[in-house]
Each structure stands twice: as C-alpha cells, then as structure tokens.
Amino acid sequence: MAMELRHKSISFSRVFLGFILFFHIFFYFVGGKESDKLFALNPQLVIYEIQIWRLFTFPLLSLSIAEVFLFIYSFWVLGPKVENCFRKNYYLLSLLLFIFLQGFLTTALFGKEKFYLVGTEGLSFYLITLYYLIYFRIVSQYETLPLRNMVQTALVICFWLMAVTLDSFIYERNTLINSFSFAIVGIFIGTLSYLQNRSFATELIQQRYQDFILFRKKLEEFESEFDDPDIANTSVNSSFDASSKETKTINIPFTEENLNKILDKIIEKGKESLTEEEVDFLKEYSKKVK
C-alpha cells in the first residue's frame, strides 16, 4: 500500500504569533504612548479623520503581560489544531477578517468616543472559541476530549482574568473594560466563524478518521497473517533483512504503541504534521501491507 505523506508544514498560527509578538516588542521599546496615538483603535479618529489603518493595527500594541501570555497560549497550543479544520489559506484570511470586524464593530458602537483600545484578547478568545466548538461538536464524536488542554485553558483564562482585574483596580486604568469588550467580540465572531466553517470541518475530520480506521485495519490484517510464531519470526525477520539495505535508519522502535501514537497524530493534526522520521516509520509498515 503506497502512502503519500507530506513533510511537516509551516504552522500559520505560530508564524502569525511571531509576527504579532515582534511588533509588541518593537513598539514597547519605541514608546507605548506614542505608538498608541498612531496605531491604537480610536473610534472618533477612524470616523471623523478617516484613519482607517487603525482598524487593523490595534492588535500590534500590547495591553498587559497577562494578555500576551493568553495570546501565546492560544496561538502556540490551540492554533495549529484549529488551523487544520480550515480550508487551505482560509485560516489566515479569517484572522485578518476578524481583526477588521472587531475594529469595525467597536467603531460603530463607540463612534463618538475618544479613547484608545489595543490588545489581542479578541484574537485569543476567537481562537479558543473555535477550538472548543470544533472539539465539543465534531471531534468528540470520534475520540475522547482533550482533558489536558481543557485544564490548561481554564488555568490560563483564570490567570488572565485575575491579572486584568488587578491591573484595572491598582493602576485605575480601563484595562478591564478593554479586555472584556474584546473577549466578548472574540467569542461572538468565533461562534459565527464556526457555524460558517462547520460543514467543511466535519467533512475533513470524518475523512481523517476513515483514513485512520482503514490504515489500522490493514495493519491488523497483516499482523493476523503471522499468528504462528515460527512463521512470524522467519517472515518478518527476512523482510526486514531484505529491506534494511534499501531503507533509512529509523530511531523509532517498531512497536504497536509507537504506531498508534503516529496514527493518533494523523487524526488530530493531519498527515502534514508528521516528521520525516515518522513518515519513514509508516512507510516501512506500509510495505508489509501491500
């Protein structure tokens, strides 16, 4: 059985994370207040002075350490999994569209107000909402829910909530209002995006699950052919000896546990997430199932 597996692809989520963090660090050293005046979202300036760029640049400015921590967790841990449930290139487009919609809605609601809004809470909660809607409504039909990620997310959000509250009361800033408004918009638009993308995500995950079942079934058929220990030892050993000169050295032990881990990884992240060594591991197994 021939297997066509791509090498590990670049994660748009992590590239996007690095891009935003670069500007956070840059504007921090350049000067926060001056940057806010030029790039923060100010509804009054957007409407009356047509400073449209503010609808896109406000996430490049950081509001607090807790907000940055939440953003890093969302895009480093959850982002790559959400990304695999989107059509090609649509994921990055959806992030840019979300930023614009967040800025547009805020400007439409507070058009006469003159205040500066910055931060990435909206993006973080947009991604968190998508992740858990997809897992609770789609992925949970085929595999157990990721309890570890659920606990991690709860702890990160609790830390963010406490930090934002303390920052708002201690320094008497509008941090709480800024963060909560962005979080609500992120959850709202994340839900709409999930509903729009649900059919494709369901189809994609179902296909991955069927591939997983088919591959595991063929491996079980192969293993059942060698129930006799004598036949199994001679056949498998000779097969590996014959192919050892033609294949690469693989450091992953040929055990069922390692096989299951790789197959589970295909279910969760797709074939493109496999490393070169994992691809070689599966190719060696696939030769036995031809």
Give the gist of this structure.
By secondary structure, this protein is mainly alpha-helical. The protein has helices at residues 12-30, 32-39, 43-48, 54-57, 65-83, 90-109, 121-137, 147-170, 175-224, 229-244, 256-269, 276-287.
Give a structural overview:
This protein has 290 residues and is an all-alpha fold. It has two domains: 12-204, Rhomboid-like fold (Up-down Bundle); 206-287, no CATH class. The chain contains twelve helices and no strands. It is elongated and about 65 Å long. The N and C termini lie close together (4 Å). Residues 1-8 and 231-247 have low confidence and may be disordered.
Instruction: Specify the number of helices.
Output: 12
The largest pleated sheet is described as: none
Please indicate the count of domains: 2
Q: Report the average pLDDT across residues.
A: 76
CATH class descriptor name of the largest domain:
Mainly Alpha
- Please report the total strand number as a whole number: 0
Query: Which structural class do you get from the secondary structure elements?
Result: mainly alpha
Q: Residue ranges: pLDDT <50 for 5 or more in a row?
A: 1-8, 231-247
Based on the structure given, which CATH architecture of the largest domain is correct?
A: Up-down Bundle
Reported by name, the CATH topology of the largest domain is Rhomboid-like fold
